[in-house]
Amino acid sequence: MIAQAIFYVLAVLTVGSSAIVAFSRNIVRSTFALLGAFMGVVGIYVLLAADFVAMIQLLVYVGGILVLTLFAVMLTQGIADVTISNRAVGRLPALIISAVAAGIMIFAVFRTPWRQSARIIVAPTTYGIGNAFLGPYALPFELASIVLLAALIGAVVISRPLDRGVSNRLSNEE
Amino acid sequence: MQLDNVASLSHFIPELVLSGAIVLLILLDLIIVNRRVAGALAMAASVATLLLVIAGGASNTWLFNGMVVFDSFAFFFRLLITLATIVAVWMSIGSVEVRRCEQGEYYAILLSASLGMFLMAEANNLLMAYLSLELVSLTSYILTGFLKHNRRSQEAALKYLIYGGVASGTMIYGMSWIFGIAGGLDFGAINAALSQSGTGSSLAVFIALVLILAGMGYKVASVPFHMWAPDVYTGAPIPITTFLAVGSKAAGFALLTRFFYPAISHLAADGNWQALSGVDWPQLLLVICMITMTLGNLAALQQNNMKRLLAYSSIAQAGYALMGFVVLSNDGLRAMMFYLIAYYVMDAGAFLVVMIVANATGHEDIDAYRGLAWRGGLVPAVALAIFLFSLTGIPLTVGFIGKFYLFAAAIRGQFYILALVGIINSVISLYYYVRPIRTMFLDEPEGDEGAVTAEAWNYGLMGALAAATIVLGLYWGPLIDFAGRSLKFFIGPA
Amino acid sequence: MPGGLTLNHFLVLSLIVFALGLFCVMSRRNAIGILMGVELILNSANINYLAFALFGGGRYDGQVFSLFVIMLAAAEAVVGLAIVLAIYQDLRTIDVDATETLNG
Amino acid sequence: MDHLLTIITFAPLVGMVLILLCPRDQHNLIRWLAAAATVPQIVIAIYLYAHFDTATTAVQFAERYPWVPAYHINYFIGVDGISISMVLLTALICFISVFASFGIEKGVKGYFALLLLLDTGMMGVFVALDFFLFYIFWEVMLLPMYFLIGIWGGPRREYAAIKFFLYTLLGSVLILLAMLGLYYYNPTPTFDMTKLAANAASYSITFQRIAWIALFIGFAIKIPAFPFHTWLPDAHVEAPTAISVILAGILLKMGTYGILRVNFGILPAATHDMAWAFLGVVGTINIVYGALCAMAQTDYKKLIAYSSVSHMGYVMLGLAAFTAAGINGAVLQMFNHGTITAMLFILVGVIYDRAHHREIDGFGGLASHLPIYAGITGLAFFAAMGLPGMSAFISEVLVLLGSWQVHPIMTVLGASAAILTAGYMLWTYQRIYLGPVNDRYIGFSDLSARELFTLVPLAAIVLILGVYPHAILGLLNTSLTHLNQVVIASAPHTASVALAH
Amino acid sequence: MENPVSVDFIRWIILLPLAGAAINLLLGPWIQRKLGKGAIALIGCGVVLAACAIAVSGFLQMVALPPGRRFMLDDLWVWMNVGGMKLDIAFWLDPLSMVMTLIVTGVGGVIHIYSTGYMHDDDSFWRFFGWLNLFTFAMLVLVLGDNLWLMFVGWEGVGLCSFALIGFWHKVLANTTAGNKAFIVNRVGDWAFVIALYTLYWGLSSVDHPTLVIREVAQWSHLLAGRPGYLGLSLVSFITLMMFIGATGKSAQIPLYVWLPDAMAGPTPVSALIHAATMVTAGIYMACRLNFLFSMAPDTMLVVATIGALTAFFAATIGIAQNDIKKVLAYSTVSQLGYMFTAVGVGAYAASVFHLMTHAFFKACLFLGAGSVIHAMGGEQDMRKMGGLRKRMPITFWTFLAATLAICGFPPFAGFMSKDEILLQAFARGHQLIWALTYAAAGLTSFYMFRQVYMTFFGEFRGTREQEHHLHESPLSMSSVLIVLGVLSVVGGGVMLPGYLADFKPLEDFLKPVFSSEFTRRLGEVPISHGSEIAFSALAVAMALAGWFVADLMYRRKVLNPETFAALFNGELYRVVLEKYYVDEIYQAVIVNPYLMLCRMAGWFDANIIDALVNLSALVVVYASWLSGLFDAYVVDGLVNLTSNVTLDFGGRVRRLQTGSINGYLYAILAGVMFILLVRAMLRV
Lengths: 174, 494, 104, 501, 685
Description:
The complex is a heteropentamer of chains A (about 170), B (about 500), C (about 100), D (about 500) and E (about 675). With about 170 residues, chain A is mainly alpha-helical. In chain A, about 75% of the residues lie in helices and about 0% in strands.
């Protein structure tokens, strides 16, 4: 029962925050609500016995992505312009589509015989995950490093202004 | 045969070479000032990869504990992707646009994309599929937005990114359901699980497939997941456009095929495939296929920018290739694979000519081609005509042979409506494919538009592709045999 | 699962978040807003993976997958925000009339 | 002498390569090279004519090499009674067209290169016996035609060229579908037309009908049959003279040839069912409607174009009858129309070169100072009218004779077109050549030696075939009569066998 | 029938004129320039006279044969051999074609000679002789062809030459129009004729004798008796009726006679040769040649006789009001051809051929005389401007008079013999009404012919002074021909005398083998007493005298004023007759104008409907692409507007990062996905 209560609290947090993210017309408010959503999800992760993942979520999402997003919003938005007249062309149809999609999928969720194992193990996972990364998931793990490398380099290249040195180099060669 | 991580490495040399080259390029960029080195190195790495791929052959093994599979099918796409990379690198070296960019990073990311495509073709696991697809996507966003101070380029990159993000998000959501039903990520395990499960899960599987299709379909730019393509193709540097159009699309088809065929279908005794557990994705894809080619063609009719025209054309071409995909037979898949080769040859050629003209005139509009044949640009004009006729599917070109096999597969599978739609589309497509030809040959040049000349290496590649278009249109026997031989999936353990 | 929580609890939760993410993606006209919607979708997917990992069999498979999703989300966010910033930067410095736009 | 048909097909291609190697401004060299490239065709055509065995229905001078064995595609060429006359016609018309093109001054190199490519494509269609090869050749002539009309044509050339291209492509893709269907419906998949024909009995009648219609539309566009004919006037009017000659002289025949070769040969049962409506009725409409439209034209060339529509109707009507006279007459009409209409278009070109317009009412009295020109035009006109003693008479008479018993009403209508044809031809002749001398044209020179050289052989053939049609009929008779029997025999009810003779 | 005698001289009768035509037409200008018109004339006349000589020798050979074996065949080569129908280029000489050949080459030969004088001043001398030779060739093919298709070759060939010679002076547009009219009207007849041939072929092949060789048709046609044909007629009736329609075209009978008067636009020798003596008789020749078929079809025979008689009468009525010297003769020709058809229709084939022959003589003589007059008058053809020529042109006058007496049927001139025979036969075979018509026509003939004689040769000269000064008798080349033909008009009737004079009918005997089919013989068995024959002769002569008398009163003695007759019925009757019963106008209004309208409609239809329908499909595609463009532009997003708006937003320092188009894309995609899901869920849950 306690677990259930915790679940519902977390669910309300997650869904509520997500709803604000989705529905708020203020992008800054959405960004802050995103924090709530992430935190709720972290709780859910814990509830799902994924301690390591929850930790990473906390670190990467809350500590990284969210900050980054906030930074970007602030940078491009300007706090002054909070009253945004979003035309919201597709809000109602979008709502309908999302609702219908959710409806169908919830229907499907209840009809589907999901694979469920008889025994549910709740135990720390860090060790197992570490093994997995070095064993069967070694290739994805290594690949991920390349992805990150490429992403970092790309981000740097794209966001770096065309500096004088490069310009000179270009004009010299042409 | 399933190899562990260390033993797998010996089969993984091309990928390793690519990875090494990526690292080397990044390092070199910090040290060496001469910008031509990067291109040369990338070229060397791609050629080496090609040779290694050929030398490695296909060995029907699972590598890295079943993460990737190394079968004939993978070999085919490795080859095709390497060729696409070579063309992209070659064009990059000759491109005026690209010359203004940071060279080391550019080629490093280009080769990363190439690596990602390799893995897409080899993926035997949902996680690998997702990872490799993301690698390709991320690098593609970056490459698209690579042009500094080019609003089009960056806008395209943003669109591409947002679209790709949503697509991959929905895809992994769909994958999660497949995981929930099958209890594993391995394609073999999924196949086994789906074979045993009854029809109770078919709705969930169908929804999951639709969601996954959003992620994979956007790589091949099939309707309704095609919207990014025109903008991105127009905005990206032309070599990248080419790379996306031929390489990324081929990799997308590889992944699509590997997932939809060996993973969630099974090969019946009569040589035709059947979808597992009553999931009717074939009908879904049939409709998508027909809409894709029709919409692509119709939208292309009104384009005035060559890149954009070719972008819509490539959507339509993807629709044609999907014809082979939806007929549920090895004939169809073989035709699709053959068509991808054909598409590679002719589309890369067309983009190359567009680049040559853009290099010379700075324009990509069809108007820039006015009277091209009569103002000293006869060679590129003829080459472009060949490529465009091939894209239309006129005989004596490889495009015709490709379509021939596609239609043959459709007719054989008794998909008459599909064949008819394809036929009508071929005719419609003639109209816009002929427009540039008309502009080049039938219109007189006006004003002071100068002659179009290009460097020898661009002409060389163009000539090679044009020759390939014709030669493969006349003698394609070995190629179709190769496509047929390559159509062997090494299916995972039950 | 102790406390009477079933798989479906988590699946429905994730679905709601997914749907909200979808709505966000569809209704937002702000690029960063859309990216936030994508993050919601990714999180909802992760809930699924972890739920299936717990209730189904493939324990580490699911958890590892979710880790990769988080990681790639980060990479995507980095690249995406870089592009956003680049455009912003660009437009601040370049004459608007000289810019080309994609259409048609 | 084993590769005669290969040589006859690809000799122009060799010429094309040589022309491409020529310097751009060596116009005369290019022209004579092109002429030389068509000479082997003429020589071989004569040889084939002399050595053709008229007693057999078998394929002669055949060559067969595997091309794509995995898909049963062969390089299989040969001639039989159905195709031999068309091979002769192609060789002749192409030879003449090259000379008729000597006046081209713009892009000479490209023009002749494309012309020779076109030549290869056309010849290939008539010798190909592998369906795939047939289709390739069929499409090959599309491209040069598009450029030849589009670059060297008249003011609305782009419209005409794309119209031609789109129309024909639509037709040919339908042929492609039918071809693939035939391939797979065969007990042993093959593209070999002779084998496909041999297995004709194994196709279900439903399939035959579907394939028949697809093929028919594909071929009908080329013929051109009503209502698919509207590309023809445009294409003819805009095309340069020699291209009009080829278009009317050879290309149109490919449509009816295809019907004979494929629809008749491979789908006889469906042919027997459907020819009545699709060939008979449509052919009759072509005859009468084409003649009516021709009467209404004010453009000389367009008038001739519509007369082609009318005359090709006879071919269809003849085919629809399933009588020996009808089918022989139809093929003979193909040959005759080829030669006569070639003359007519050359003649239109002659006056267009001088006057730079083609308005019929803008001329008058040309006979007074261009007597030779007017004389040959008169000959061609009367030939087109089917005047006895000239070639078209024989074929039209055979067609109508053959169809009378089977389709009396159609025949009466078809025969009445002889009156209509005489009407518009004579009226046109009068308006252009007779009457008071028009001062504007007094300075015009009569036919040049080159123009005479293109016209006289055709005129001679027209006259000779009028009195000795056996020269061509003898080639056709065995094969066509056999083909006719096959179609009749494939009918579910064989009561109509009585009509065989 | 016994096998025909195989010979090889017939081809030369035909090829010689052809060679002449080829030389004159192809090399004519050159020869005329280098060697003069004499060479042209020599070639032109020489070939025909040579052919005539060969024909005469052939005639002698034929006469030497026993009557039952007088069939000669000259087989050249296979023409076509299709579907069991084997036709050769072969020529067939039997008594009937022998007679025709002699007429064609003989009369033709003298007209050629006449032409050397008549056309002497024309620059296109060579062309005239070329076409004249070609005509002779075509006519001989028609006559000698051994099968019906070959006959048809000549049949249309003479039409072609007729077309070319009517429009010989082609710089005058009206002449060429007349040529066109002749050709097209003939084509209408030919259309019926070929249908007759098709039907005949199929009829014979249904009795296992698919052939159109005339002698074989003759052999097997009896098998067709009683077989049903089309339009409710028996097969043979249908065939012969269609053939007769063909004949009405060629031989200018109602309703297709309208071209012949216009054909007078050609040079006068052409009118004499083609439009009087030879070509127009082709229909009669054809009917006689196929007498075995016609005889099998009594209903057709009745139609033929009726049409013939009507034509004879109505053409004669038109003839009395014409003022053009050649037009009078033209309608006279139509009328006389009507007589010949009457004879065919009543089954008197020999009489028909006999009249054909005598008509060739006297009508050629009349035309050439008229030509002589026109020549002298400097091209004037209106008789009202002539008069009194008798003294200035005696030879012309006397020959013209002889021919006039012949055509009017005064004994013992040739026309008396032949026309009398026809009238007699018509009455004797029970066609009283037809007899009455033709009898009346004989009076009219006499009237208009003497009217012509009086207007032309008697009274005062009514032309200009210049013409009067120029008047002269024609040169020897012309006048000698007039004399020859004049003499023939007098004595030509001698080959078939009336029974009460002598039992001397060599022509009928000679032709008997041709008219020996069972059905023809059955028709011919009509006993006629000498008394009735004499009575009919007297009646006929009385009628001719009456015509003469009226003409004499009106035009020589001027006792009666023609104007008073013209003014009867307010002059309406006269006007109707003068305007040839408005037949041309009716044809123009009923057939030609609607036809031209139909053509214009078809042309409009093709350009605006058919082409538009085809273009419609293109339009649909364009529209669809426009729609999909809209889809891209508005449903997905207002790309053009929005992106620029977005850009402007940026420029407007509103710091929003809005990428409007993207969410539209996503929206569309996700909507697509959801739609798929929804459909799937509704279809199968």
